[in-house]
Amino acid sequence: MFYVVFLTSIEMNKIIYTLILITISISCSQVKDISYFQNIEQIMTLPGSNGHDARIKPKDILSITVVSSEPAASRRYNLFTPQTETGGTFYSQAVLQNYLVDSDGKINFPSLGSLKVEGLNTKELELHINNLLAPFFTEEKPVVTVRIVNYSVNIMGEVLKPGKYESMSGRMTILDGLAMAGDMTIYGRRDNVKVLRDDGNGELIIYTVNLTDKNMFYSPAFFLEQNDVVYVEPNKSKANSSKYGAAESFRISTLSVLISLITMTTTIFGLLR
Predict the structure, then answer these.
(1) Alpha carbons 163 and 132: distance in angstroms, whole number
(2) Long-range pairs for 10-19: beta carbons < 8 A, 24 or more residues apart
(3) Which residues of 14-45 are buried (b: 16+ CB within 10 A; e: fewer)?
(4) Nearest in space to 115 (alpha carbons), one of 123, 226, 125, 143
(5) In three state form, how does the secondary structure of the chain look?
(6) What is the chain's pLDDT, residue by residue, as a tens digit (273 residues)?
(7) Are the C-beta atoms of 225 and 55 separated by less than 8 Å?
(8) In whole angstroms, what is the distance from residue 199 CA to residue 39 CA?
(9) Burial class of 256 by CB neighbour count within 10 A (0 to 12, 13 to 18, 19+)
(10) Is the pTM higher than 0.85?
(11) How far apart are CA 30 and CA 33, in angstroms?
């Protein structure tokens, strides 16, 4: 048996008002889940933003060049890696030898021998080598350039383009890394991003970064370090949908809509009583 319900203008206004409130509530909840750095209305000063440099760790690979006005004197410090081809050894292009930081945090540098480099940033190591080499040059100090060759991070999970990303500048923030990976998908949890970091001594440090909170700028994981792994966890919607096939997902979605309609109808008639 069907009943026809006639609503007055006041009752209709109540229904419209209720629907508007429900819609706004749902929309605000969704925006809050996916918006970055919420409640950030002022200029913030990032700690270390003016001079952040990664610290050298064991197993890092360093590129070190020495340039001066005395080519003969600086040549001995710029070792080239030979490239072989059938018929002998040749240099097809100037390829500098890299230095592997050993488990004790040291490298073996020409003329200077074993150097402790662990814990230094590239600028500090440049200055250190420059001072050590000064006595070997008669005219002026050489220009030393140090770069961490293996400065890269792995970004996994709910991002558009998971993969390994490199930084030529020796500096990368978590926002830089996510931007390189095409940003998070709509299914990525903004409030629970994991950063896995090897401290260089065999210990794994795990940081949790909440990108919806403005305080994330002060997290130790805001500036990424070489070989960090960034993992974006899927939200509940993605996790639940992965348990079911397309048919099951359609039935569950349909059931959810029906339940929502029944709940909304019950709410509306409750207001009209």
Answers:
(1) 40
(2) 11/272, 14/268, 14/271, 14/272, 15/268, 15/271, 18/267, 18/268, 18/271, 19/264
(3) ebeeeeeeeeeeeeeeeeeeeebbeeeeeeee
(4) 125
(5) CCCCCCCCHHHHHHHHHHHHHHHHHHHHHHHHHHCCCECCCCCCCCCCCCCCCCCCCCCCEEEEEEECCCHHHHHCCCCECCEEECCEEECCCCCECCEECCCCCEEEECCCEEEECCCCCHHHHHHHHHHHHHHHCCCCCCEEEEEECCCEEEEEECECCCEEEECCCCCEEHHHHHHHCCCECCCEEEEEEEEEEECCCCCEEEEEECCCEHHHHHCCCCEECCCCEEEEEECHHHHHHCCCCHHHHHHHHHHHHHHHHHHHHHHHHHHHC
(6) 444 444 455 555 555 555 555 555 544 445 455 566 666 666 556 655 555 778 899 999 999 999 888 887 788 888 776 655 555 555 455 567 899 999 899 999 988 899 999 999 999 999 999 999 988 888 788 899 999 998 999 999 999 999 999 988 888 999 999 999 999 998 999 999 999 998 777 789 999 999 988 888 889 999 999 999 999 999 877 666 665 555 555 666 676 666 666 666 666 666 556
(7) yes
(8) 33
(9) exposed
(10) no
(11) 5
Can you tell me which residue has the tokens 């209720």? 18
Q: Which are the contacts of 20, defined by CB distance < 8 A and separation ≥ 6? A: none
Task: Work out the number of other CB atoms within 10 angstroms of the CB of residue 221.
Answer: 21
Residue 221 CA to residue 199 CA, distance in Å, equals 12
